[in-house]
Amino acid sequence: MAGFVKNDSPFTCAVCGKRVEALGYSSRNHCNGCLCSLHLDVSPGDRANACGGVMRPVSAVKNRKGFVVIFRCEKCGAIGKNKAAEDDDKELIIELTATPFKE
Question: What's the DSSP call for residue 70?
Answer without folding.
Answer: E
